[in-house]
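Task 17 of the worksheet. Students: predict the tertiary structure of the chain below and write it out as structure tokens. Keep your answer in the requested format; marks are given for formatting as well as content.
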Amino acid sequence: MSLHLHRLLGILTLASAAMASEAFLSSVGCSHLVDPSAAGLEAAKAARDGLRGEPPRLVFVFAARPQMGDALVQGVASVFPPNVIFGGEFYAPLAGNEDFADQGVGIKAGIAVLAMAGSFRTRITSAEVPATGDRTFRYGTCGSALGHALRPGLDGPEPGKAVITFGQQHTGDNEPFAKALTNALAHPEVPVIGGGVPGGTNGTIIVEGQRRTGCNVAIAICGQFTCTTGHGEPGGEPLEQTRQALQQGTASGKIHPRLILAFHSRTVREQLLQRRQLTSEVALLTQMAGPGVLFGGYGSGQVVPPAWGEPSIGRGHLLALAVFSTP
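Model answer:
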């Protein structure tokens, strides 16, 4: 079936992937419908079907900015329990082989839902960014609160550990945020991957099925998996950045990607569209995902380790990847 026909149907259902059915299962669904409630429902149903009856542990919803509202959340919550739903508004979601390229840089209609199931543990927290004070104090306070709350959850015996974070952590602001978060975690070996949602202090995220602004969420995941990271350097050829990020994220050569989580840049998306290379980049990412799934969003700033085993830092205008794999 052609992609054009998928779009006429209003939905692209993407393949699910299991690291091991008892350990980690992930599935993605997308929708092009304009109505937020219908789009959320459609994408959520597609993601749920890929779990093959397993109960969801985490659900991420990345949506076009005009669609982020209560109606969208209600649509997704009609399929999944609200307490497992997290997400945010982005210039565009990125999922499977869907790039929403026909809508330009900042799209008006596009929903992607990632559903995850398995025996992994999670520890979840959120914290507001103080309204007053300088940048270092405001974002450092938020990052430190998140890190201290998550730290006890990272002391378990599981071989695979990662922290996912998103919210009000834009380029520049994410530098003191990431530094305080990683310092408070006291686990420099655990990769932290994340990104900022657009909109400044009004940027919307979803925390346990509730819309919130002016805050960040952080989720620790521990289980029987390997999480490696990669990123491209700003400037130069955008596709070369993507190849660089993938090379870093799969450097060991002995992994089988089951989920590629991508926090991408609006600036890079614009460059790729100008060069008519956006579809080529998505093809590179989906090829690396193989039987796994690709999920992410184009936002405003990224958090990623500068090198494997080093504490994560705040960056901007690049692609940051976390590759969840099995041996």
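Marker's comment: The mean pLDDT is 91. The chain is about 30% helix and 35% strand.
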